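= Tokenised fold =
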Amino acid sequence: MAKSGILAKSHDLQESFGATTGQITIGIDLGDRFSHCCVLGTDGIVLTEGRVVSTSEGMSRHFQQLPPTRIAFEVGSHSRWVSELLTSWGHEVILANPRNLSCWCAPEPV
């Protein structure tokens, strides 16, 4: 975890990419002032987590220089501009629609 809960900047996050050989996934909980992030390795182990200022400059400091990565977050008021920004930097963006979440979490019929 980064010091004081702030997510490491992109050049420091590169270390997490070197620690695993597979696809890294980043989950972001977008907020009005700050967004909370969790970086997962291929085995689902948390590599690092922290928060990012919810501005284009804040997102740039943390994600622009990363190699192409899968980044997922929920549809909301900030999802359009964040999605466009991350996609322009070569990342794969997955938008989760909370209305469809029940079909992912529903137990299988017996």
Strands lie at 25-29, 34-40, 46-53, 70-74, 92-96. The first strand starts at residue 25 and ends at 29. The CA atoms of residues 84 and 93 lie 9 Å apart.
